[in-house]
Amino acid sequence: MKDRLKTFFTQHWTYLAVSTACKLNLFDCLHEQKTATQVATELSLTEEKVVLLLNALHSAEFLDKKEDHFKVNAMSELLTENHPESLKYACLNWSAEHLTAWQNLDFSIKTGKSAFEESYGLPFFDYLNEHPEKLNAYHKAMYQYAKEDYQNLPDILDFSKYKSVMDVGGGYGAIVELIKAKDPAIECVLFDLDKVISTVSIPNIKKVSGSFFDKIPNQSEVIILSRVLHDWNNANAAVILQNCLEALPKDGALFVIENCSDKISIDLSLLSLNMTAMCESHERTSSAYISLCENAGFQLESELKLNELQTILIFKK
């Protein structure tokens, strides 16, 4: 039991070593076999410490090693910049400000408030908006998750019966990209802050900038809120939903995609603690999301399972 605890205490070392390798572009450097000397020279690093990092990554099965040469393997290839299924920015996401917030989780447990805001002096998303490089890295990470999480969405939902669909708070546009690829005739609208969508280059979609806390334009029959409401407490979520209601036509539809804690067998307590520490929010049950939407003026029509974690709640105005 003691040995197990001692190992447990330092498990984060491996993840932080991997995250450091992503930050240094080390995996990108090792598409071909190289020695520690070659890596240190190419990346302008301290050779003695590069040896330690490379060997640690090899021990953790993130690098192949032949004599004194190292190379990426199937695992670490997924952490390179240009891999089509890259999770590089997802890896980086959890080792930066998220880690600091978790180190101050006791503040959130005591107060119910955001440990992130206590540490950095700003709410999480306001902080990102003031740091363009971090904002870009965050949305790259969310895009990497979304490409996989929502890959079956156009097959599960029949979007062809709609002329237009708007993804509100859609980040770098993974959902509208998937919908457009399946049904090119649909007008797909991506709505997010200008500093977010200004970097998106998905062809044949319409980009509209604004804040979902202000006015959402009346430009679509359908609004999608995918993993948006869980970022906000009930008061803020109510504002977003009211603006969605006003943006939709008389018979418009709202699709809310979330991890509903009552619809899955996986315990979401750690994820809820993360939302508390970062955003002063939490993961909700389907009934909690339904209540929020109904209070805003929506009526539940149906629900569908998207994947192992996520449920689609379908509402009519």
From TrEMBL:
Residues 102-299 form the O-methyltransferase C-terminal domain. Pfam families: Dimerisation, Methyltransf_2. The keyword S-adenosyl-L-methionine applies. GO terms for biological process: methylation. Keywords: Methyltransferase, S-adenosyl-L-methionine, Transferase. InterPro entries: COMT-like, COMT_C, COMT_dimerisation, SAM-dependent_MTases_sf, WH-like_DNA-bd_sf, WH_DNA-bd_sf. The active site is at H230. Residues 16-81 form the O-methyltransferase dimerisation domain. PANTHER family: O-METHYLTRANSFERASE CICE, PUTATIVE (AFU_ORTHOLOGUE AFUA_4G14580)-RELATED. This is Methyltransferase family protein.
